[in-house]
Design goal:
Blueprint lengths: L21 E11 L5 E11 L3 E5 L6 H9 L6 E6 L14 E4 L11 H11 L4 H14 L15 H13 L5 E5 L7 H17 L3 E5 L3 H7 L2 E6 L4 E7 L8 H4 L2 H23 L2
Parallel strand pairs: 3-7, 3-8, 5-6, 6-7
Antiparallel strand pairs: 1-2, 1-4, 8-9
Helix pairs in contact: 2-3, 2-4, 3-4, 6-8
Bound molecules: adenosine-5'-triphosphate and magnesium ion.
Length: 279
């Protein structure tokens, strides 16, 4: 289909229409690092607007490298990456509508929660009154409204991660990249944040690429899971989770969830085996 004839993406706030409009596309994008290490073999991956795609695979298979390529934090050694921003006029640059959440919340310890969340708006000179309003809205979304004047050290690990998510949301991204954001949290906090993220990404019509080592987390959150293998990093297979969005805690206790986890686990074992064979 011609790019110009593709329908436009859902408006912010509307339920996402997965599979409709591409948000980002890797066209044989590969990465060989300066020291000669082959981080990623050529990757062919199209993520559509409103999709929630997880990357899962053994350590060293290039998940973070792939995410950094999409964020333009690093350049591909060969191949291309295309970004669409709310239409086709912005193809080619990731722009400001992309947010990256790392495993560590990376907050400024000397600044209050609200100042931390406001940081990306300060960078682009958002007027003070508007910034204040957006920070309040972002904190309310992650249920941290009452903690705006706290310092990071006064919060739990899960709450600090919520601040980090609010800081990503305040920029009103349409593409959210998350690299093992909840990996350091206990299972209860992680489950809760997963539920919040499922709701937020649905409400905001976000396109999300999410890196995780957890089969349960990947199945709970994703519309599609990309299973990767290592030595060299590459896509091993894909796994769809055809369940209505937004997912809620009930999904976790369903037989369908258990079955999907078993199936994904089997594919992941095969990917691990393939990685060892080529190590
Ligand atoms: N800056 C770099 N310079 C050289 N090699 C690198 C660099 N960054 C990553 N690599 C190598 O590229 C490969 C992929 O690394 P990457 O960090 O993307 O893996 P990953 O799947 O995110 O692993 P993990 O699950 O442990 O986070 C690894 O072999 C790694 O050692
Ligand atoms: Mg990584």
């Amino acid at each position: 289909m011609d790019a110009a004839t593709l329908p436009r993406p859902a408006a912010a706030g509307a339920p996402p229409r997965a599979g409709v409009v591409p948000a980002v596309e890797l066209l044989s994008a590969e990465k060989v690092f300066a020291n000669g290490v082959r981080g990623l073999d050529p990757i062919q991956l199209r993520v559509a607007g409103g999709e929630f795609v997880s990357l899962i695979g053994p350590s060293g298979c290039g998940k973070s490298t792939l995410l950094k390529l999409v964020a333009k934090l690093i350049e591909p050694s060969d191949g291309r990456i295309l970004w669409w921003r709310g239409g086709f006029e912005g193809v080619g640059q990731p722009g400001r509508r992309l947010a990256f959440v790392f495993q560590d919340p990376t907050l400024m310890p000397w600044s209050r929660v609200s100042t931390n969340v406001r940081l990306p708006l300060d960078f682009v000179g958002t007027p003070r009154a508007e910034a204040k309003q957006r920070v309040e809205a972002a904190l309310a979304q992650v249920e941290l409204g009452p903690y705006a004047r706290h310092f990071p050290r006064q919060l739990s690990g899960g709450m600090r991660m919520r601040v980090s998510i609010a800081r990503a949301m305040v920029t009103e991204p349409d593409l959210l990249l998350m690299d093992e954001p909840f990996g350091a949290l206990d299972e209860f906090s992680r489950n809760r944040l997963d539920e919040d993220l499922a709701r937020l990404s649905w409400e905001r019509g976000l396109t999300t690429i999410f890196v995780t080592h957890s089969i349960y987390e990947a199945v709970f959150l994703s519309s599609r899971i990309v299973v990767m293998a290592a030595h060299p990093g590459r896509i091993f297979g894909e796994f769809r989770v055809d369940e209505p969005m937004p997912r809620t805690a009930e999904f976790r206790s369903s037989d369908r969830f258990a079955q999907a986890c078993r199936d994904l686990s089997a594919m992941l074992s095969d990917a691990a085996l393939a990685s060892r064979r080529t190590a």
